[in-house]
Amino acid sequence: MKYLLTSFLIVMLTAFTLPANNSIHSFKVKSIDGGMIDFAKYKGK
């Protein structure tokens, strides 16, 4: 039982600590005038 609980805990902690691939720079939104705003353009500023 202790082995099962430890394994489950390790799996859950690993799932929560994986880095997210999405950032604000990977999104595109529609602007007010109908164009597209690519946030990757603002990366590093």
Report what the structure shows.
The chain is α+β, with helices and mostly antiparallel strands and 45 residues long. The chain has one helix at residues 2-17; strands at 28-30, 36-38. Strands 1-2 form a two-stranded antiparallel ribbon. Strand 1 (28-30) and strand 2 form a beta hairpin.
Average pLDDT confidence is: 81
Shape: rod-shaped
Q: Tell me the structural class.
A: alpha+beta
How many distinct helices?
1
Q: What is the helical fraction, as a range of percent? A: 25-40%
What is the count of β-strands?
2
Poorly predicted tracts of residues:
none
Proportion of beta-strand residues: 5-15%
Order of helices and strands: HEE
Alpha-carbon distance between the two ends: 52 Å
Tell me the strand order in the biggest sheet.
Answer: 1-2
Measured on Cα atoms, how large is the radius of gyration? 20 Å
Main sheet: strands, sense, barrel: 2 strands, antiparallel
